[in-house]
Task: inverse folding
């Protein structure tokens, strides 16, 4: 039977990397049963890249994807970018036997401006062409903002229709938060989504300390921001339908991610997600 590979989005583990280093963090990932990672928000220093490589070899963990900005997230921000550090980023990928690079988000200063966003996506498409010459595919990761509508059409669909080389790393929590059905969106992006983010969506506990009859705005702030990022299987998304749609649409890697763990140890959260995914019938995808 055809299957995908379940992995970890390492943004969750950046604190662990600072605390115990890349190698020991990867050892723990393997102990939890995961055999693929996507590297994000981990500084790609020479030491970290070589430790990722060593851990990948020693623990048989695939480096499914790395992350890179196309240009600075905000003007003047000092970060590695594909525009300025192309050779270094490609070299890191080659060292790690990795064929996917993903852009984590839009530059913050162009959010909400349709024309600037579509111009940015054209630059990403040109970069995808350039990376293809090195055997590397470029992916763009969505949030909810790409579900703004213009003349009844989602911005993310305009991004898809205006490109052919660029892939899309769909994040199912952010699709749902954007008001769309993750399964419908996954189906529309057939053969463009080798990477998929598994992130659940739950309603958290309302902070009743915000209730103040003299200041209802404080309560309304707590009331409207009650949504949480959940461990896979601990929220309201139909993960089985999502994963099956992802596989049918060409996803290879299904990456567990949780932007906030609300005080839990991220390894414990990853263990909960892994247990729930095994219960759903995906034990042999680890």
Result:
């Amino acid at each position: 039977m055809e299957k995908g590979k379940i992995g970890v989005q390492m943004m969750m583990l950046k604190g662990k990397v600072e605390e115990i280093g890349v190698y020991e963090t990867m050892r723990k990932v393997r102990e939890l049963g995961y055999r693929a990672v996507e590297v994000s928000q981990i500084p790609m220093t020479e030491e970290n890249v070589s430790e990722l490589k060593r851990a990948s070899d020693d623990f048989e963990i695939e480096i499914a994807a790395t992350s890179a900005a196309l240009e600075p997230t905000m003007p003047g921000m000092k970060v590695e970018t594909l525009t300025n550090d192309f050779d270094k980023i490609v070299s890191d990928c080659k060292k790690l036997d990795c064929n996917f690079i993903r852009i984590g988000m839009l530059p913050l200063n162009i959010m909400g401006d349709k024309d600037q966003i579509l111009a940015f996506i054209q630059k990403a498409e040109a970069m995808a062409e350039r990376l293809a010459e090195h055997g590397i595919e470029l992916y763009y990761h969505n949030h909810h903002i790409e579900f703004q509508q213009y003349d009844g059409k989602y911005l993310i669909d305009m991004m898809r229709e205006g490109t052919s080389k660029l892939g899309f790393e769909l994040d199912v929590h952010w699709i749902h938060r954007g008001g769309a059905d993750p399964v419908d969106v996954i189906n529309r992006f057939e053969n463009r989504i080798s990477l998929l983010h598994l992130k659940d969506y739950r309603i958290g506990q309302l902070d009743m300390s915000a209730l103040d009859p003299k200041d209802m705005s404080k309560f309304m702030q707590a009331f409207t921001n009650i949504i949480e990022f959940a461990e896979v299987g601990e929220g309201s998304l139909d993960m089985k339908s999502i994963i099956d749609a992802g596989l049918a649409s060409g996803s290879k890697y299904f990456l567990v991610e949780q932007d906030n763990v609300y005080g839990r140890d991220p390894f414990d959260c990853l263990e909960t997600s892994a247990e729930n995914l095994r219960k759903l019938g995906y034990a042999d995808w680890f």
About this structure: The first strand starts at residue 5 and ends at 9. The mean pLDDT is 97. The two ends are 15 Å apart (CA to CA). Residues 114-132 form the longest helix (19 residues).
